[in-house]
Amino acid sequence: MRILVVEDEPDAARFLARGLREHAFAVDTAADGNSAIEKAHISTYDAIVLDLMLPDLDGLAVCRALREARINVPVLMLTARGAVPDRIAGLNAGADDYLTKPFDFQELLARLRALLRRQPNLEDPILRVADLVIDTHHQRVTRAGRTISLTTREYGLLAYLAARHGAVTGRADIAEHVWDETYDPVSNLIEVYIQRLRRKIDDGFTTRLLHTRRGEGYQLAPEDESYGG
Ligand code: CA
Q1: Which domains does the chain have, with CATH numbers?
Q2: Is 166 exposed, middle or buried (0-12, 13-18, 19+ CB in 10 A)?
Q3: Were both Cys, which of 1, 42, 84, 199 would link to 46 (CB 3.0–4.6 Å)?
Q4: How far is CA 128 from CA 112, 132, 141, in A?
Q5: 61: CA distance to ligand 1 center in Å?
Q6: Would you state the pLDDT for residue 90?
Q7: Are 24 and 152 spatial neighbours (Cβ–Cβ below 8 Å)?
Q8: How far is the CA of 64 from the centre of ligand 1 (A)?
Q9: Using one digit for the tens of pLDDT, what is the confidence trace for 96-139?
């Protein structure tokens, strides 16, 4: 899942980006409202964490601009002011939820996950593909009851493919949602990560779950349910 963090205070932006990356999110940052709007037009984010107080356009104006452009990404607004009129203004501008600063990082994570789950297919925090179980709350993966230890990026890739419920997922789509804007489209990073992931989840099992569909992308599904074409 890829998140845009819009925050002008560098320490706060770094804190948020680092925390989210540790929880396997791909994170881009924007330090002002105009660059946030620009990035949201260029990339498809799964959610935006948007500070209310920004140097140029404030969070309300950013939110309104996104909604007017029909960019319906979930927005979690951060407000330093706890005042009720600000929260109402945020929700009226099209934010999906808000959090008052200072906040606990775990609470931000919980709110963000709740927003992401509102997307179709993601209501359940436990994703299952045959005997592979992905607990998206605790970032834990097991297969046939055995714990599989993954790096955060491997986990992010696996969780993204699992959330696609057996759909074949192209490289561009993976790059967009699992990597951030530093991803180099001519690199073979995705293949490298797919191979590592395949070794960790499929080696030693007779049913293979991670498939390469040549020319189309990758698919996480039990072999017998796979693909007629
Ligand atoms: Ca700010």
Answers
A1: 2-116 (3.40.50.2300), 123-220 (1.10.10.10)
A2: middle
A3: 1
A4: 21, 6, 10
A5: 14
A6: 80
A7: yes
A8: 18
A9: 998 988 899 999 999 999 998 876 656 678 999 999 999 988 89
CA of residue 136 to ligand 1 center, whole Å = 30
Ligand 1 centre and the CA of 6: distance in Å?
Answer: 8
- Using the mean position of ligand 1's atoms as its centre, give its distance from the Cα of residue 9 in Å: 6
Distance from the CA of 59 to the center of ligand 1, in angstroms?
A: 9
Half-sphere exposure in the Cβ direction for 175 (13 Å, CA): 17
Q: CA–CA separation, 146 vs 201, rounded Å?
A: 10
Burial 21-57 (b: 16+ CB within 10 A, else e): bebbbbbbbbbbbebbbebbeebebbbbbbbbebeeb
Angstrom distance (rounded) from CA 194 to CA 30: 29
Distance 78 CA to ligand 1 centre (A): 9
Q: Residues near 148 by Cβ (< 8 Å), separated by ≥ 6?
A: 141, 142, 200, 201
